[in-house]
Structure to design on (452 residues):
């Protein structure tokens, strides 16, 4: 954010005659500043809004409670709106924000803003005007024809498809670019299998048994909404959503689409504590041209997608459902399920068979009530974006974080001991505490979040 503000200040006095790309660059920078503020707001709820007009002294005098939550959303939205109005639909260089990626991000922001919270983080109402904006903004992206779902779900997690048709906005990385080790993503470097000889570190970010169970399907190829976690899933006998083998490393199943490299329970760092599963989406094979090992750590040049086209479809579907127009959401959700059903080519074992019994079907219009559609939408987001990061923020947005996570903990504690002391406290744990050092640094100007 500070870099965006520095750059905005440095080009503010240039004329468009001397710098014809001035408005475009300002829009790109405000898009990036909007992204930074959005991430901070998701994490902390109340943050200081800092733009390029503030001096250092003014920044120190800016409170994190200068604006209400709703006002802060609008301040961040103004940056994305400026980007929508001043960016081209297509950029000559990959990775640069464009009018459509700004529209998608603004849709995401308005969707979060629509779920209005009280001072104790409880969702009290859903703003219908904001939902209508989500529908319109998402439709701009959908009707543009510029984006679509990758034909195979796997392609979202392979570097060969970076900046593909599903990537609406992504953080860019590179390798063999003339720098010492490349501009690699080391963020996920501790998540590789601990015991696999080609990696050796460190087995973090393991999927839970609850998540693995969620991929089970019923006889109709649909999720088991209320009963999925009643028993531990047996991947040898259960029918499952194919996305499980794109998401979770399972004993005997191909690891990262390599049929000759089955995942092994012997690779797991501490199965007695954390279970046997491995997160796979962010990992790459050691043979991939995107992969580099630096000491004990692993880095890859695979992009991180901030918004996928699948997101945009589900943004609009969610807005339709909460507006009571759930029939319009049905085909949007079914697009993802149809893609998932066709994403089984890369997950096959060496003998050409599927590692599990894949069974996934689309939802029917029969009994597609608002309540059922909401449940389907929420479950679809979990399956589609599992281990990609939005799950917790979705639960907070929907106002169901406490009930969902405490139910999760109650059951998961019977399966693994490291969660024994864990509890989610409603009215506190929806957001992180404001760091005490920041409160001290501002001499008490920053106010602590509720409950801490």
């Amino acid at each position: 954010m500070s870099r965006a503000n520095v750059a905005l200040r440095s080009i503010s006095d240039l004329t468009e005659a001397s710098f014809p790309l001035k408005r475009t660059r300002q829009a790109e920078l405000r898009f990036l500043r909007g992204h930074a503020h959005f991430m901070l707001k998701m994490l902390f709820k109340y943050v200081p809004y800092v733009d390029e007009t503030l001096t250092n002294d003014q920044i120190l005098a800016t409170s994190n409670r200068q604006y209400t939550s709703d006002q802060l959303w609008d301040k961040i939205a103004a940056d994305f709106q400026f980007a929508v109005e001043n960016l081209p639909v297509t950029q000559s260089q990959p990775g640069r924000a464009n009018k459509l990626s700004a529209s998608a991000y603004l849709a995401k922001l308005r969707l979060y803003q629509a779920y209005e919270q009280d001072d104790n983080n409880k969702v009290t109402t859903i703003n219908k005007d904001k939902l209508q904006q989500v529908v319109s903004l998402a439709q701009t992206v959908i009707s543009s024809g510029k984006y679509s779902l990758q034909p195979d779900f796997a392609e979202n997690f392979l570097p060969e498809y970076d900046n593909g048709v599903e990537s609406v906005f992504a953080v860019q990385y590179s390798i063999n670019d003339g720098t010492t080790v490349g501009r690699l993503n080391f963020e996920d470097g501790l998540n590789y299998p601990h015991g696999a000889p080609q990696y050796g570190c460190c087995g973090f970010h393991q999927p839970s048994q609850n998540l693995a169970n969620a991929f089970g399907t019923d006889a109709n190829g649909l999720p088991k909404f209320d009963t999925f976690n009643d028993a531990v899933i047996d991947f040898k006998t259960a029918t499952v959503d194919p996305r499980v083998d794109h998401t979770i490393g399972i004993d005997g199943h191909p690891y990262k689409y390599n049929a000759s490299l089955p995942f092994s329970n012997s690779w797991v760092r501490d199965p007695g504590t954390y279970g046997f599963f491995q997160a796979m989406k962010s990992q790459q094979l050691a043979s991939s041209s995107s992969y580099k090992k630096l000491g004990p750590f692993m880095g890859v040049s695979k992009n991180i997608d901030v918004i996928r086209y699948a997101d945009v479809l589900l943004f609009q579907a969610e807005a339709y459902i909460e507006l009571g127009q759930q029939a319009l959401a049905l085909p949007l959700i079914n697009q993802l399920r149809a893609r998932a059903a066709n994403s089984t080519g890369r997950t096959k074992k060496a003998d050409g068979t599927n590692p599990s019994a894949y069974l996934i079907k689309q939802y029917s219009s029969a009994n597609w009530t608002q309540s059922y559609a909401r449940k389907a939408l929420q479950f679809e987001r979990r399956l589609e974006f599992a281990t990609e990061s939005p799950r917790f923020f979705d639960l907070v947005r929907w106002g169901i974080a406490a009930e969902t996570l405490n139910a999760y903990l109650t059951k998961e504690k019977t399966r693994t001991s490291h969660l024994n002391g864990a509890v989610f406290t409603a009215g506190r744990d929806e957001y992180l505490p404001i760091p005490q050092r920041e409160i001290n640094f501002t001499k008490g100007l920053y106010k602590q979040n509720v409950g801490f």
